[in-house]
């Protein structure tokens, strides 16, 4: 599993989502599954959370499902792409369900992200005024059959309509990958080539997997992923005033540096906060790991090493 996401259900228990298609980079997509647990140790599943309905616009690269309770329903934000260039580039679509495990059905008319550039990894943030924002990445990947991707990945915030079905403004650039001193160009081990379906440019810097955390003092932290000296990594950026539009200040060192990433933090009923991410970043060996974290105005601190490495 890549891109794990854990939902703590208000009525009790947890639901785990993630990217699990066998041919995740460019093969035919199946959908999203989920697993359930009462204790974060023993998991039941998989259960089908989403299967594309007839006529669905996308058929590949089903990535990074996130599910949150919002407006009396459960909302899934997920990345989709099509092998048909006429369908437009990869984007983030909104789906809904009455149950945390689905089945989820399309809610927005295709992606809510801009339809002229490839986008991915959307997360929902509701500000103090109740305004919903989609924070998402324009990573280094190019659209299938189009020009190569950009060389400096970007992170954006996009205001959504109250019902989440459409954008309600223009994207706001938050930062580029090069803003973080630890972010390095994508590299692969000797003898390993990047998947052709990603359509990468030369020596790209990535932005992936945003997750926003509000602190008691009102600051806003963002976990996000790029590549560092030791492979895929998780960094932290901070908006001291708590505004989703920033300005965002990057931490000098990644929170997690060793070939794992796309992390998110959830809170259990006792108030404990846990970071989950996939490690290692080597297909098909990715697994879900979890570690306790401490979140304060000063930043995010790991309280252990989930890999034992």
UniProtKB/TrEMBL annotation:
GO terms for biological process: carbohydrate metabolic process. The record marks 121 as: Important for catalytic activity, responsible for pKa modulation of the active site Glu and correct orientation of both the proton donor and substrate. Belongs to the glycosyl hydrolase 43 family. It comes from Nocardioides luti. Keywords: Glycosidase, Hydrolase. It holds the Pfam family Glyco_hydro_43. GO terms for molecular function: hydrolase activity, hydrolyzing O-glycosyl compounds. Signal peptide: none annotated. This is Family 43 glycosylhydrolase. Gene3D superfamilies: Glycosyl hydrolase domain, family 43 (2.115.10.20). It comes from the Bacteria.
């Amino acid at each position: 599993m890549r891109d794990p996401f854990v939902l703590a259900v208000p009525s009790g228990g947890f639901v785990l989502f993630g990217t699990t298609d066998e041919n995740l980079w460019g093969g035919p997509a199946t959908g999203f599954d989920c697993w359930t647990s009462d204790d974060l140790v023993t998991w039941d599943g998989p259960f089908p959370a989403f299967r594309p309905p007839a006529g669905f616009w996308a058929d590949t690269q089903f990535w990074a499902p996130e599910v949150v309770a919002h407006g009396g329903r459960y909302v899934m934000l997920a990345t989709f792409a099509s092998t048909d260039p006429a369908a437009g580039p990869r984007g983030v679509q909104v789906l809904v369900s009455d149950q945390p495990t689905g089945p989820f059905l399309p809610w927005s008319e295709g992606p809510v992200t801009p339809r002229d550039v490839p986008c991915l990894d959307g997360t929902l943030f509701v500000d103090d005024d109740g305004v919903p924002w989609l924070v998402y990445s324009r990573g280094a990947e190019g659209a299938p059959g189009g020009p190569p991707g950009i060389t400096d990945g970007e992170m954006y915030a996009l205001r959504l309509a109250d019902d989440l079905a459409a954008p309600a403004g223009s994207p706001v650039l938050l930062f580029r990958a090069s803003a973080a001193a630890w972010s390095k160009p994508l590299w692969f081990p000797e003898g390993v080539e990047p998947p052709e379906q990603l359509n990468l440019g030369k020596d790209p810097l990535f932005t992936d997997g945003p997750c926003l955390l509000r602190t008691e003092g009102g600051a806003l932290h963002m976990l996000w992923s790029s590549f560092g000296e030791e492979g895929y990594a998780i960094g932290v950026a901070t908006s001291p005033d708590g505004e989703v539009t920033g300005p965002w200040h990057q931490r000098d060192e990644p929170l997690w540096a060793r070939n794992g990433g796309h992390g998110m933090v959830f809170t259990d009923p006792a108030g404990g906060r846990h970071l989950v991410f996939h490690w290692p970043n080597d297909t098909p060996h990715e697994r879900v790991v979890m570690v306790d974290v401490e979140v304060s105005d000063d930043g995010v601190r790991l309280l252990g090493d989930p890999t034992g490495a």
